[in-house]
Amino acid sequence: MDSTFVVNSYNDGDNIYIGVKDFTRLLNGKLLYDVDRDEYIVKKENLHMKILPESPYYLLNGKIEKIRGDFLRDIDGCLIPVTPNLNRISSIMSKRLVYNKSRNSIDVYNNLYDIMDFDVRKNNDRTVVMFTLSRPVKYKYKKSKNSIKIYFYTKLLNKRPFNKTFRKSLITKVSIYNWKYGKYVVLNVKKGVFIDDVNYSKEAGSLQFVLGGSSSKKYGPMGKGKFTIIIDPGHGGKDSGAIGPNGIMEKTITLRIAKKLQKYLSKDKNFKIYLTRHDDRFVSLKERTKFALKKKANLFVSIHCNASVNRKSKYARGFETYFLSLARTGWERAVAARENASILYESEKEKNNYNTVDYILSDMAQNQSLIESSKLAEAIQNKMAKETNLKDRGVHQAGFYVLRFNYMPAVLVETAFISNSKEEKLLNESWFEDKIAKAIGEGIIDFVKNYEFKIYGRK
After folding, report:
1. CB 453, CB 408: distance < 8 Å
2. What is the pLDDT of residues 130-156, one digit of tens each?
3. Which domain holds residue 79?
4. How many domains does the chain have?
5. Calpha distance 354→350 (Å, rounded)
6. Are residues 31 and 97 located together in one domain of the fold?
């Protein structure tokens, strides 16, 4: 494997950073430092990059860009936050950066599979074809009478996962061929099969084709009926959630923001809005998701406040949004563990309902909603960045019980750090809660505008 392993220069428990010298070396470029302007300049052929320490900004060939996180100062120069910016930095470097979970570091590859995995799953009257991507890949597809051809603009395709049988699915055979720009996959399908939906997500690293057969029902675009949204104020009752240095409780903040969000979204007559709790009461994690399923929700948004054990940490600040998947970083696992701790307040009978294997292994319906969940998370995160002046910590993925059992696009929003005294004060301000509610609401509206609502295998 043509690769270079890079030991992380710094890990703050959230992001992994590489030094600007390592970055320049991997580029085979030249590094300069402008003392007067306090800028690091990286040069290579047609690339000219200026990095501004202690900020999220850089200039790439004269154009101002922004990353998630800040460029940090270091005794050896400057540190670049890699983990929340993998795709962006990979693009700049023209190399593939992959987070290595076992080593908790970054692997930089000159040559690795772009299409890493392939799977076909059957659920009721539909078949879902899933490609797992290590980086964004350009593609196109063509449907003929008895086949679907998917053209990838890359030659780096792992052939091993394609050697499978596809019993009880709408696919009869899968073949791989070369074309001038890369590889293409041919799906031979049964008579009458149609493409019901195509979902592509850079954030989730996934491309999905949802196929229907002669017995499948086609669903039109959302808008002809009510769009049901469940707003879930985190914690409540005996579960106070995190408590700020001045005694403000997470459960209080989340309920106030949830009610303001409900009011904001209720302006649109096409929305039906429900809260999982309206007052200070305890609602189990399973009850919250059962409520969403009972209401046949199209969307689920859980609202929380972030917290750090080290209240004085300068890095424990800002907002982030999560969608369901396995946690990749130590920080993602820590956040999931803290929010999942609500299960400790549940009865023994309720606790026994959470099966570890069932929790980790995503089933068909959630694989289909994973991409849309990542898009919803991105839409909310973008609006939060616009409405607040807090640090943009990016979109993450982790395993949350409250999201695990939902079969619709579902996200968890960590609005700000209640453990940070400055952000705790903001969270307790009505005007700031209004801003957060508006940001989440606008993110939801933007998402719904671009989302064709379909029911996957559930009535």
Report:
1. no
2. 898 877 889 999 998 899 999 999 988
3. 3-103
4. 3
5. 7
6. yes
Cα distance between residue 113 and residue 445, in whole Å: 36
Q: What share of the chain is helix, strand, coil (3-state, %, to 5)?
A: 30, 35, 40
Cβ proximity of 1 and 10 under 8 Å: no
- Give the residues across from 106 on adjacent strands: 6, 99
Reading the block at residue 92, the tokens are 């700049």
Distance CA 453, CA 226 (A): 11
Continuous segment of H or E residues that includes residue 365: helix 364-387
Q: Name the residue type at position 101.
A: K
DSSP conformational letter for 249: B
The string of pLDDT tens digits covering residues 15-62 is: 888 899 988 988 889 999 999 989 999 999 889 999 999 899 999 999
Please return the burial class of 60, using the count of CB atoms within 10 Å of its CB with bins 0-12, 13-18 and 19+.
Answer: middle
- Quote the Cα angle for 335-135-188, to 5°: 115
Residue-level length of the chain: 459
| Other Cβ atoms closer than 10 A to 61 | 10
Contact 55, 67 (CB under 8 A): no
Which amino acid makes up residue 121? R
Q: Is residue 50 within 8 Å of 59, Cβ to Cβ? A: yes
User: For position 154, which CATH number holds?
Assistant: 2.60.40.3500
DSSP secondary structure code for residue 83 in this structure? G
Residue 412 is part of a domain; what is its CATH number? 3.40.630.40
Closest by CA to 157, choosing from 112, 126, 196, is 112
Q: Please state the φ and ψ torsions of residue 404, each to the nearest 5 degrees.
A: -55, -40
